[in-house]
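Appendix B.2, paired examples.
Example (i):
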Amino acid sequence: MCFFWCLTRPKFHAFISHISPSFLSHYFSFDPDRGESDSVKMGESQRFQLGTVGALSLSVVSSVSIVICNKALISSLGFSFATTLTSWHLLVTFCSLHVALWMKLFEHKPFDARAVMGFGILNGTSIGLLNLSLGFNSVGFYQMTKLAIIPCTVLLETVFFRKRFSRSIQLSLSILLLGVGIATVTDLQLNALGSVLSLLAVITTCIAQIMTNNIQKKFKVSSTQLLYQSCPYQAMTLFIAGPFLDWLLTKQNVFAFKYTSEVLVFIVLSCLISVSVNFSTFLVIGKTSPVTYQVLGHLKTCLVLAFGYVLLHDPFSWRNILGILIALIGMVLYSYYCSREGQQKPSEVSAQMAQAKESETDPLIGVENGAGILTDAVVAKAPAWNSNKDLQA
């Protein structure tokens, strides 16, 4: 609870979202006039990385927990209304955040209402489409749909946001996807309706996750503030469409289901865990990138497979073990390359700032060399962590 309180503090989010290249150049270049000590700066850097690691850990623990809880609810107790359950998750999340706002754990920051509404509806739609994709496709093809989210996100960010992914990052992602594919994809039964639903699910999910990152940067809002304002629209979308989609998939009416005390306990538990899941999702995407969040999602898949084998004695083959090992190699390589490239970014920014500062001694040379343009560009550029947006693990 204390950890959740720390992550929701507005000062913490302000610190994360307002780091600038000027700060990086101040940190990584020598200046005898600086008043701050190196130990203070090192502490700030460590707190920044600790916050990111904490967000990733919270996401993994809460997601694995809710999968285990929902598996018991759906498989053992027969409550198979996943879309309606998700709408309840979002409703409870909104109520929890409203209580946190009342306790002044974070500040309400209204911004573009149309952007929030569109984002919330799109998020709800993507969840519904993913559930439909699972219902109208085989499990193997659904897993392929989830694997397609990473390359689709990379493509969209490359085409529309001019983000560049190095060959090393592309190689590590390929190894990761290969491993998860080996571990999870069993059969590939295709049908026209299921394929269309899967395509729409991938596109809407990618756009929603990219928007999660970009909205936080553009409007300078924290993950908590964005989640609080978009939750009602997500919950409303799924609450309206949920019963119909669940009936379409299960041929059962969610309102006619027999709610025993055991079912109600697991529903309440699932809704409480979902608060942490939804919060950590926005937090991780805001701090890192949609691609890193998807990589983290595949780590959760591997953990769920392992927990299923150890705790629930699910069938486990050498193919599963091989796939998980390959996927873990891909994750380690992804973390290493992201960390290495993240360390290179500050030094590049520092060199550019130093070059611009030297050129200021001669205004004529500065204009001819475009030094003034360079300085403006560096200041306006997104922070090195955010422009790279990849995890320093």
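Example (ii):
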Amino acid sequence: MNSGYSLINKSQNKISLDSLTVFDEYVPILVTYTKEDAAINGLRVASSSDNGLEESHYFSALEVLSRDKQIILKAPSGMGKSFFLKMLARCMTGEVSGDKKFNVDRITESIERTETDSLPEKQNWDAGVLKPFIFELNIWAHNKDSIHNLPEEINEAQLVLIDGIDELQNEDWQWISTELQSFFEKNPETYAVIVGQNDMLDRLSPKLKGFKCYSIKPFTYSQKKRLFRNINPDLSCSEIENRLSEPVGSLGNLLEITQNLSWWIKIGKKPTTVQSFYSEVVRFLLQQENFDADQLKSSAYKKLCDQKIEINIVSKYHTILDHTILLEYFACQYCLGDDFSTHFNNLIGHNQNRAWSLSRILHLVISEQDPDKFQTLSSELCPSEDPSENNKSLSLSAILSANLLFEAFLNKMFIQDKSSKRIKDWLTAIITKGWLTPYDRITAGRLLSWMGDDRDFQEFAIIPENSFTMGDHILENNMPVHQVHLQSYKICKFPVVNKDYLLFVKETNREWNSPERDDPEKRNYPATSLTWFDAVAYCEWLTEKWRKEGVISSKEFVRLPTEAEWEYASRGSLDSSNNELLYSWGYGWKDNCCNSQELGLNEPCTVGIFPENCSQFGCLDMNGLVWEWNSTLWGNNPKKPDFPYPYNDKDGRENSKNAPNNIRRCMRGGSFGSAADHATSTYRGGLEPIGFWRGDGFRIVISEKQYHE
């Protein structure tokens, strides 16, 4: 095609660029990855004027594409993923054709990077003008002429844009992923964006290697202001502010905002809440279109459950049945009739990749009809059986049940009863046994934190006296591989979590500038934004406390692990006889085994939700999640340690107590922002002891041997 742009379509293999609608309302989308995460000075140095709570500065989707070349963008339906692809393709071809409106300047327009208003910055795009090719995987997969072959146009493209992954069947993904992997391995310089919903992308296997995964951020206040201004340029600043204070302004989803504004104008009535907005839309449809409410609810439910619907009904209600949000709304209304749990479980069973979208809509419907029903419906939805391997297929219902319970006690003190105890048992089983997807377990972990996570986060593994192999043959800083002999010690199976560190802060009045310190949904998250001195102070406080309580003897200390103790607890008896990366689970990388950059979450999560990320001693989360402070000195140079291997605890590297602040301390394990080759059991890093970041934490050991005294 002359334009260099095409789209696979059901009625014909390609349609021209001109047949696509690109809206003037386009607003650049942001991802959850920040400048602070990317920059080395994101590992900030504390000062007396620093409260640690500055706003984050987010990258745009375009900028991470420029940075990484091949990316996956994850987000719920309606967040602007497909819109971004079309706009990107339109502007690239527009630049070539001399389009004054849609060109590179338009796609790289300035953005506000923070949650609130900030000075606009031009987006960074270093790739110039690229020849784009966009296609929908689901349509291509069902084209009988395309089986096991990617479209020919992909070979000429410099920018490949892929949509439609949400509608794929797993068997289709098997051959498509193989073809895509082969193509991009042969064409590593080709830029590519794949977009899809979180649930669907989490469930697809195998994963594409070489693609960086990013989550799209819900619309910020600044983005909403720009969107309202683009939709109606005549709005004054005060009118825009008024819109933002109303229900539509509370939404963070591009599709919901634009569609709801459209309906708002159509019904001619300003809603007072999001719930009343949907109610007004329904009332308008039933009155103006002479729709039968029961028939409409039943039809929406049947469509989402792949049941047959009469042609005349499809024709009558096509306005609703083709509208994603309203379709889900009426289907959820149907479920709230007789036998709620059976109908809603059936709905979820047919739509697992949109389960959380349906859950959000269900909450709106319940809030509108009878908010007092949340707790009753939660009890109905939770499986009556005890969690076990035989009935783990019921896990998703258990999480959604917990989510309903959360709504029931919103802004109220949670009171546990027999039903909620059953829900807690399910949530605990889901996260400790690794059921469902990582994102499901992340949500389960937050809900369990809110309900009260009863796991023992101060459980210790006993490490016997032994010699082990330390280092690897991959990085210079990890060489030479050598043997180290260690005395017996105990190491905590988890990093220190927020609820335990907060007890220390409250008792000692120590400063802790973490926005998550009092979050009831993150009590079981690792404590972060801590300096090395914070970690040491916690250990000293806990030593005194536990000696008084008889938890440890008068000869024992709670302290940070040495670098050698940390590595042995993580790798165990694994040797370094080959050049494979080492992890707690063994040799070589495994998808979805830890919270690293590959997961695309870009933030911490509940500890222990990756049961495969467990060492032979039972230590969890030693790869990814958060960097962990060690007692060992690193040195002044961030790239090369002053204390190289072989490890020797008598050469001064463990005299860290009184070392100056410019001498870095070792950090191990990587974090949610670390790539697979950093989130290993052998990778060595270091940071100034007064530095801190939201990806830094620590775990503790108990030993009779105390260093730096």
